[in-house]
Amino acid sequence: MNSKKFSFHCDVVVVGGGLAALSAAISAVDNGAIVLLVNKGISGKSGSSAKAAGILAAAFGHGNLETRPVPDTPNKHARDTLAVGYHIGDPELVNFVTEQATSAVQWLENLGVEFSRTEDGGYIQLNAPGNSCPRAVSAIGGGQAIVSALLSQAKARGVMVLDKTIVRDIKPIEGHKFLVTLQGRQATTVTAGAAVLAAGGATGLFPTVSGDEGNIGTSIMLGYDIGAALKNLEFIEFTLIYRIKSKILRIAGMAPFLSRGGKLINSSGEDLFGLHFPNKKSEQVGRAEILRLVEQEIFNNKGPIYLDCTHFSDVTWQEFEGSQGTTTLDKLTKAGCDYRAEKIEVIPAAHSVLAGIKIDTTAQTTIPGIFAAGENATGIHGAGRLSGNGLTACVVMGRTAGFNASEYANNAQGKLRNGVAQKTLSSKQLNKLLNVTKGQSQASNANFEIRALMNKVKKIVGNNLGIIRSELSLTEGQKQLSNLWLEIKDFDEQNKDAFELQQMVRLANLMIEAASQRTESRGVQFRTDFDKLDNSWTKAQTIVKVLRR
């Protein structure tokens, strides 16, 4: 740090750079707060939401192109959410999100996001998996278009954006403030009146993912080390991604196609939905059921599994290409796939964690002044996530977290206006003031070793905490992680990669422990040794007690 002493204050620090984080930052600054957004990647590009298909679930009741309108209500949306979540979701949180879903879509529109509409101006709503009626609206340009619009709006409003910087620690200090430790190549600190944790989930702990491999759960562990309660760590949702001519495309390959009537076909040409769910349309089958079925088909040597949309009408393709043409479909085309005429191979991949930091309807954690939103927060989805609810929850709870964080900072001590943050600063000015140099050289042998160990963690998690689990696999995973921890626990934490490696191992161990505790199969957790749903577990949500490092 510079020898000159200074005091840098802000009202709210937002950790993350995706949809939830940007929604929180905009909501906080619109409520009069001075906001610093810190992201370890590049805001607007990194994270899972930028790679998402851009589908949000909201009960407008407009219906699809074939059936308009279709009666729908927030209560109906809530019932579907709880059912797909196998009744593990928090009913209060679920009701809050579903009631706010339509206003969240309209808020995005007001910020410049475009959605697919009919000529009469109504939303085109798709039959997304698990929804009992057409409910999903599609952002034109997908998730990338959404986060790009929000990033522009955040910067225009004066949100200070600090990229390629991690938040290592948040500690309460005197005066109802928090001391936030940041690190690019070197560490520095700022103070804040409140913080929002919104840096994504932990799918990056798995070897094959649909979104951003950098989502390794550091934000969840940040909350854990502050003292916030965690829950539902056993629930990890998987999806299907594409394999085109031996090349894997890490974009979600299920909802956009299945919501329009796509089929899943095994190597024998059998329609899996028709074979196993003859009384359901493809869009009515929950994600957990689909992934378990695909995994079992592959286990029974009936793979590869293909996505077949060759029966789509020209009208369906025109609507699809109009809303997703710049995202999913363009990427398929660039990979050499003629998606209109070809069956597309799909493979399972970790898609989202349904676990994380416990929050209430104000988005506050169990620690006053610390809020959470997005994939690192839990309570909405339960043991399975309703298609479209992921982005919806990011917006609803992101807005909620930002507003309430700004209110907390204001009510606790008055607006923080006595430091250098009396006016907002550019990213360049921030870096100069805080002496945080972006990025970190990855050229050293030490860092190459750490990267190799990170891949080892992913292999352990993938082999032992996948779609199908058992006491044997979970015990083996814990054993391997314990041995690995002994190898890395004394690594220099000032090395950014070493710090993240340690956080990966700690979180992976907590997740496996939670999976071991749940002696049943529910939603996305399927155990071969406890292969039935146990009603005694319906209300029992796994809460992990804090054990400080």
Provide a concise account of the structure shown.
This protein is an alpha/beta fold and 549 residues long. It is 36% helix and 17% strand. It has helices spanning 19-30, 74-84, 91-110, 142-156, 218-226, 255-258, 272-276, 287-299, 314-324, 328-334, 389-413, 427-434, 445-464, 471-488, 496-517; strands spanning 9-15, 35-38, 55-57, 125-126, 136-138, 160-162, 166-173, 177-183, 187-197, 230-231, 236-244, 247-252, 263-265, 305-308, 344-353, 356-358, 370-372, 377-378, 468-469, 526-527, 543-544.
Please tell me about this protein's structure.
This protein is α/β, with parallel strands linked by helices. Among the domains are: 110 residues, Flavocytochrome C3, Chain A, domain 1 (Alpha-Beta Complex), CATH 3.90.700.10; 88 residues, Methane Monooxygenase Hydroxylase, Chain G, domain 1 (Up-down Bundle), CATH 1.20.58.100. It contains 15 helices and 21 strands. The strands form five sheets. Strands 1, 2, 6, 7, 8, 9 and 17 form a seven-stranded mixed β-sheet that branches. Strands 12-11-15-14-13 form a five-stranded antiparallel β-sheet. A four-stranded mixed β-sheet has the order 18-16-10-21, covered by helices on one side. The longest helix has 25 residues. The two termini are 26 Å apart.
